[in-house]
Amino acid sequence: MPDRHLVCRKHLARDLNEPTCSRTRGTVNFPPFEDLDEVSVREARKFHIQSLGSIRNSGRRIPYKTGKRDFHEKTGRDFFEVFQYDFRVPGDDTPWTVMWDYEIGLVRTTPFFKVCKYSKTMSAKMLNQNPGLRDISHSITGGSIMAQGYWMPFDCARA
Asked: Which intervals hold domain HTH APSES-type (predicted)?
């Protein structure tokens, strides 16, 4: 429990609007993939994932408040229930946060574009080039800074 408290405080320091950590709520339909063999763990360690093996032990609720109503209309919710972890590309100290809603399976894809040094508009261009993807993805522009960006269904993000 003390380690979990330290992780929460670290995230609060990055964004004062962030909620504190909480236990998972609801159903975990999209658990973290942490049961890795030794070779996979060695590869993951290259990306400095400190919480590998314990991501599933804590969840966060991130409220979503904005003038846009489409997220609530499409999901019936005004929050995300997320698991998250930070990683660093070898040779670069910039932390990148992977975040996904473990209940409904939306993945915040913004860091994947940023880590590849794509422009801010590349995410929107990608959505436009894949018919139907924009209809099932969400552009979050208000609320917590950590939740802002494009969120898409798990299977689409994985592909």
From this structure: 69-159
Per-residue DSSP letter, 69: -
For 75-89, what is the mean pLDDT? 90
Q: Tokens for 120?
A: 């801010």
Query: What is the band of 10 on the pLDDT scale with cuts at 50, 70, 90?
Result: very low
Q: 3-state DSSP: the chain helix, strand, coil percent, rounded to 5?
A: 35, 20, 45
| pLDDT number for residue 68 | 65
Q: Which long-range contacts (CB under 8 A, 24 or more apart) does 140-144 make?
A: 140/64, 140/66, 140/71, 140/108, 141/66, 141/68, 142/64, 142/65, 142/66, 142/67, 142/68, 143/17, 143/62, 143/63, 143/64, 143/65, 143/66, 144/15, 144/17, 144/18, 144/19, 144/62, 144/63, 144/64
Looking at residue 66, its pLDDT comes to 64
Share of the chain above pLDDT 70, in %: 83
